[in-house]
Specification:
The protein has 1241 residues and is of the alpha/beta class. It is elongated and about 120 Å long.
């Protein structure tokens, strides 16, 4: 036994799953080999003397015929002799022997069945985890074009729903081929008992199979769920934009449409499923009824008498037949669902992958050309139009190449072509050495700052420090609560745009790669910080001076220091050469430089004393605070919040941001059941209970009628009134079938009603949550609830309730029959009930906790998939696929470690329960033998044939009860977010707000103060400003000054701690959030688009005319681009707008603002990702179109606000200076110092 309990568990079938690789004792295997196998064997050995005694007493010793085994299983009462002679001829020991064999065979059946189920679940779990790993690996291989088609929502569905359906298929599949064998055997024994009329029963089975095959095929519908999960992922990714623009209700409607479609398909599916269940559960009646078994038997020959032997042996055989037939709907449904899931999986796995030969990777060499493209023509799809044509370039090792061009000219596409991310239609591409890539939108992991920079590499302290200093990150480390161990939120939520870009740059620099592809990393930082990074990292004297660098940039000051300049125009290289060569040619590039040279020179920074260098990177707005409050920049106040939150934490927990999904403990509270049934509604509940009781009463009457029929003594060898008996029999059976259909349908429809309300409540709770909620809650936690938990509420809870109620009432019927036949059975029933309730209580508590742990460990899988899909190009560029695959495997393993003991515990429970059921069978049989003189054959047959069902009934009751309780955990997790802090109401009823408010755009701050949490220092304090209508105000300040907090206070992303903000004389705290946010406009720094048409992205409420949309696009300088698209305004944007360049997305955000045309506009450096020419056009558009509006600009580049009427200089949450730019420069204070550092004075 010691050897058995220390088996390592190695299994070659699952070579990559760490769950099975352990040198420690595997308790689950020990449990399986002891409790599941050896304990029941005690029962078998105990009964073996009775078996040997029987062999000795038989006339023909040494074997038991198969027909006798059948007799023992069905307890064949001897009714062929008169009662008086029967008592004399039948020896009592034979009755006890048959009772013991009955118990013995039932125990053997239980052991074998649950060993089989254990192995099925094990194989199913391995299949599930293997498929999850396969999907993840495919995610790292699919091409960019395929990624646009395979949305994250679809992939989450593959991992959550489809893999589970494949696992269920493994468990139930064998029913499909075992069922025909069992049916054949049952009909064989019926033939022996009744003769040819037994064949008539096959007709009912033949009718049932095609019907249910058709139903199973029609039931499947997954498309709506895919669309809903995809949309939910986008909503969670862009929730900040929804709140700024007050678009929550528009997206609520979009989700509602998809959810209604999903529930409509589910309703149709459940109606068909109810037909399927009713037909299978009526199978025993259909097989027994005319023109089937009993009808044909009694009507074909008057001498055919239905006595107790024939009826109850037949009924027992039909009940044996009922088990496979009742499992068949599950098996057929599961098989059809698995086929659909398999097709979806195959479709995903057949998506195009990146071709390894797109780019030829060669070993690094210090001589010759490092990057070569000859005759290159590239497109995003294999059959699409080329985005880049006629590309010819050679870059020698160690050169700095600058790539410039207008928005949409193909600069980023050129880098993608070098990475092999684009389809190479013609030509040749080669790169020598390793590659590091810095994308235009920085990809940041939900990990510590240190882990983001090391990116799987080993920490080398001196090089690490040099990289941080060169990337201007040392000052940021000083203000973070845990330094470089501070956790960074998903997508870098708690970093500013500039900080994210510098972390992304530091990750690449730390790698010491041979080739660096930099996609405009300097656009997100201030001019002087950009100059610092260029000099210390990218430029001729930087850390990368010996590396090959391809830099996409809009900064003209860097071009003169580049060894080679490429000018992109409409997907082609229009000019190429050194800066001086291009200037001497006096072409389009030279004219462009001369036009903007003055501005650029003012913007450039001159060399200065490094001790005066100030990190202005975090001037960007909407850098989100890491506390339990709302968005703010990474200011001193936000850091104080993090420090306050972390004061009581251990050192290793300091800087922790996100909250892991928490598991409740103990059994599910009664409140959750009340909540679920309250949403179902009293009408449905009363209907369900009535129909269940009615169905079981019909079943009881049906079975009692059979026993009366069996007890009728034949007169002259015949029975009378066959038609009447068959009519009553048919009526009762039909009533039972209809009641079954009504019950299952009522439960299904009630479940759909509950699911609709619970999903709507979850969606509203999430969208009403403040921004701080989304900062600390990983998206995987939310997606888990919207996918797996809602799916459990949709399907699993109603299915569990159907089974539990059906079997509970069936058990009640069996108990009534047993008590009528053998009253002493009540004592056995009482003892078994006490033991079962204790067993169930112990088991359910454990099972619920395992279910919670399994649900909690599932969220990190979704978060990791989400994060990987967003950063696939970075992971591939750095060659880190293997490390990320191992991380995914580890998360999947953690999930299965909670799942495996759960189903092993279920098998333990089932073995115990079935043993108790077998004891009840033994008690009923022995008591029937002892009372053979008092009991009629009909009642004995009824009692024993029903007691044989108790084993399965008990097992299914606890299994279904456990399923319900386990899945009620989903209700618990969905309702969890009801009690989280919420924003103020969206719209106040009875609001007297004028329709045209604000009419002038006057903004007043009156002694305004802001705290991220009570007890902390002030983020803003004593702010008193009166901004007049049409005034243009720039807001500047150093890192942590609180300038973004001003804008966030206006939008009430953060609520006032004291004082008030008034717009046109109305206190904004006294109006609804949507009333406020829909009347003012912001152009954010991060341009967010949603999947759908351009029209929807511009106007989700569909209130603007086409003329208005085209005018806005024209003013945003996008009309020519949209006109060139085949579908114009109906052009479909991908998830996150990935099929548009970053500059085009920013221009679309400008078009949104032009459409809203409110009296107040807040600008957050909305032109960082566009070229200087487009930037100038945008600035002129803003000045012209918003001339009559109040404009607040959170300044990033100071030259854009030098013509504003006033400048507000923030410092530590207070106003340090406020006046016109010229006056502030004359004062030579803080603003003058900032202008000096930026080279503007």
């Amino acid at each position: 036994m010691e050897d058995l309990c220390t088996v390592s568990g190695l299994d070659p079938l699952w070579d990559w799953n760490l769950t099975w690789y352990t040198s420690q004792p595997d308790l689950t295997q020990c449990f399986q080999h002891t409790v599941l196998v050896w304990s029941p064997c005690v029962y078998l050995w105990t009964c073996s003397p009775l078996y040997l005694l029987y062999l000795q007493l038989r006339p023909h010793r040494g074997f038991i015929p198969l027909s006798k085994l059948c007799c023992s299983k069905t307890v064949r009462p001897s009714a062929d002799a008169e009662p008086g002679t029967r008592t004399q001829r039948t020896l009592m020991w034979k009755g006890f022997l048959f009772a013991s064999l009955l118990f013995l065979l039932s125990c053997l059946q239980s052991v074998l069945h649950h060993q089989y189920m254990f192995h099925c679940f094990t194989v199913g779990m391995r299949l599930k985890t293997a498929v999850m790993g396969l999907v993840y690996r495919k995610c790292l291989l699919i091409s960019s074009a395929a990624r646009q088609q395979c949305t994250l929502g679809e992939i989450i569905n593959l991992v959550s729903a489809d893999t589970q359906k494949l696992m269920d298929f493994v468990v139930y599949f064998n029913c499909i081929w075992v069922t025909p064998i069992e049916i054949t055997l049952c009909f064989y024994f019926l033939w022996q008992l009744l003769g040819p009329p037994a064949l008539a029963g096959i007709a009912a089975v033949v009718l049932i199979f095609p019907l249910n095959g058709f139903i199973a095929k029609v039931r499947i519908q997954m498309n709506f769920m895919d669309g809903r999960i995809k949309l939910m992922n986008e909503i969670l990714s862009g929730v900040k934009i929804l709140k700024f623009y007050a678009w929550e209700e528009a997206f609520l409607r979009r989700v509602g449409v998809l959810r209604d479609g999903e529930l409509h398909a589910l309703k149709k599916s459940q109606i068909l499923y109810s037909v399927s269940l009713a037909s299978f559960n009526s199978s025993s009646f259909l097989v027994s009824l005319t023109p089937s078994l009993f009808g044909v038997y009694v009507l074909t020959d008057e001498r055919n008498v239905l006595d107790a032997q024939k009826i109850f042996v037949s009924v027992a055989l039909i009940n044996i037949l009922k088990t496979p037939l009742s499992q068949l709907p599950f098996a057929m449904s599961t098989t059809m669902q698995a086929i659909v899931s398999l097709r979806r999986l195959v479709k995903f796995l057949h998506q195009d992958e990146l071709k390894p030969d797109n780019v030829e990777r060669l070993p690094h060499s210090t001589d010759g050309d490092c990057v070569v493209i000859e005759g290159g023509s590239f497109s995003w799809t294999s059959d699409g139009l080329p985005c880049l044509q006629g590309i010819n370039m050679k870059v020698k090792t160690g050169l700095l190449v600058a790539v410039v061009g207008n928005v949409g000219s193909g600069k980023s596409s050129l880098l993608s072509a070098m990475l092999g991310e684009m389809e190479r239609r013609s030509g040749f591409v080669s790169i020598k050495g390793s590659v590091a890539y810095i994308p235009q939108q920085a990809w940041i992991q939900n990990a510590s700052l240190k882990d983001n920079i090391l990116f799987g590499g080993e920490r080398k302290e001196s090089w690490y420090h040099r990289v941080l200093e060169a990337c201007a990150l040392l000052q940021d480390l000083d203000i973070l609560p845990a330094g470089d161990s501070t956790e960074i939120g998903e997508k870098g939520l708690n970093l500013s745009g500039g900080q994210k870009q510098r972390v992304s740059l530091a990750r690449a620099v730390y790698r010491k790669s041979d080739v660096y592809l930099l996609d405009d990393p300097l656009s997100a930082v201030d001019a002087h910080v950009g100059q610092h990074i260029f000099e210390r990292v990218i430029g001729p004297r930087g850390l990368l001076k010996d590396k090959t660098r391809v830099l996409v940039t809009h900064g003209l000051s860097f071009l003169s220091k580049a060894d080679l300049v490429l000018v992109m125009e409409q997907g082609q290289i229009s000019e190429m050469g050194s800066y001086m060569e291009l200037m001497d040619r006096k072409g389009a590039f030279a004219k462009f430089i001369h036009t903007f040279n003055g501005n650029q020179r003012r913007e450039s920074s001159t060399p200065r004393d490094k001790s005066k260098t100030v990190n202005l990177t975090a001037m960007l707005a909407h850098c989100l605070c890491v506390c339990m409050s709302s968005s703010c920049d990474m200011s001193s106040a936000s850091v104080q919040v993090m420090k306050a939150v972390n004061q009581d934490l251990d050192t290793e927990d300091a800087g922790k941001l996100t909250e892991a999904d928490k598991a409740h403990t103990g059994r599910v509270k009664l409140q959750m059941y009340r909540e679920y049934f309250r949403t179902v509604g009293l009408t449905f509940i009363m209907t369900i209970i009535f129909l269940c009781a009615f169905q079981q009463a019909a079943s009881l009457a049906y079975n009692y009628w059979l026993s009366l029929w069996a007890d009728e003594q034949p007169i002259n060898g015949t029975q009378s009134d066959h038609e009447l008996k068959l009519s009553v029999f048919a009526a009762l059976g039909f009533t039972q079938g209809m009641a079954m259909f009504g019950t299952t349908l009522a439960i299904a429809l009630g479940g759909i009603v509950a699911s609709h309300h619970l999903h709507a409540g979850l969606l509203l709770s999430v969208l009403h949550s403040p921004m701080s909620f989304f900062e600390v809650t990983p998206s995987g936690n939310l997606l888990n609830r919207f996918s797996k938990e809602i799916d459990a509420i949709d399907c699993m809870i109603p299915d569990g309730l159907k089974m539990m109620l059906g079997y509970l009432f069936k058990l009640l019927e069996v108990c009534i029959i047993l008590l009528l036949a053998t009253p002493f059975t009540a004592l056995v029933l009482l003892l078994i009930s006490v033991y079962v309730s204790g067993l169930q209580s112990f088991y359910v508590a454990s099972s619920c906790q395992l279910r919670r742990l399994e649900a909690v460990s599932r969220s990190p899988i979704y978060s990791h998939f989400n994060e990987t899909m967003q950063g696939t190009n970075v992971i591939r560029a750095f060659g880190e696929q293997r490390r990320f695959v191992l991380q995914a495997d580890r998360r999947i393993d953690n999930n299965q470690e909670a799942y495996f003991p759960r189903f092993v515990a279920t098998r333990w429970l089932a073995v115990n329960l079935e043993f108790l059921g077998n004891l009840l069978v033994l008690a009923a049989a022995i008591l029937s033998v002892r009372g053979r003189n008092e009991l009629t054959p009909g009642i004995v047959g009824l009692a024993v044939s029903h007691s044989l069902q108790v084993t399965g009934i008990l097992s299914w009751i606890v299994r279904s009860w456990t399923d319900v309780e386990n899945n009620i955990v989903s209700v618990e997790r969905v309702k969890e977010y009801d009690n989280t802090p919420k924003e103020a109401v969206w719209t106040l009823e009875g609001s007297l707000l004028p329709a045209a408010w604000p009419t002038s755009g006057n903004i007043q701050f009156e002694d305004y103060g802001l705290q991220y949490r009570k007890g902390l220092d002030w983020a803003l304090n004593n702010i008193s400003i009166d901004i007049q209508d049409r005034e243009k105000v720039g807001i500047v300040g150093r890192t942590g000054a609180g300038k973004s907090s001003l804008a966030l206070g206006i939008f009430r992303i953060l609520e006032a701690a004291k004082g008030q903000i008034s717009i046109d004389g109305i206190n904004i705290a006294q109006i609804g959030l949507h009333d406020l946010r829909s009347r003012i406009t912001i152009i954010p720094q991060d341009p967010v688009l949603f999947s759908g048409s351009l029209r929807m992205n511009l106007d989700p409420f569909d209130t603007c005319s086409d003329e208005d949309l085209w005018k806005a696009l024209e003013l945003a300088h996008l009309s020519s681009f949209v006109l060139a698209l085949p579908q114009k305004l109906n052009h479909q944007c991908c998830e996150g707008g990935e099929n548009l360049s970053l500059g085009q997305r920013q221009l679309l955000c400008l078009a949104r603002a032009l459409l809203r045309k409110t009296r107040i506009l807040v600008l957050d450096e909305a032109t960082a990702a566009v070229d200087l020419k487009t930037d100038q056009l945008i600035q002129s558009t803003i000045r012209a179109q918003f001339d009559d509006c109040t404009v607040l600009t959170i300044a990033h580049r100071l030259n854009t606000i030098m013509d504003y009427t006033r400048i507000i200089v923030m410092d530590h949450g207070t106003i340090a200076e406020m006046d016109s730019p010229s006056q502030l420069i004359r004062l030579q204070g803080k603003f003058y110092q900032m202008c000096l550092e930026a080279g503007l004075v």
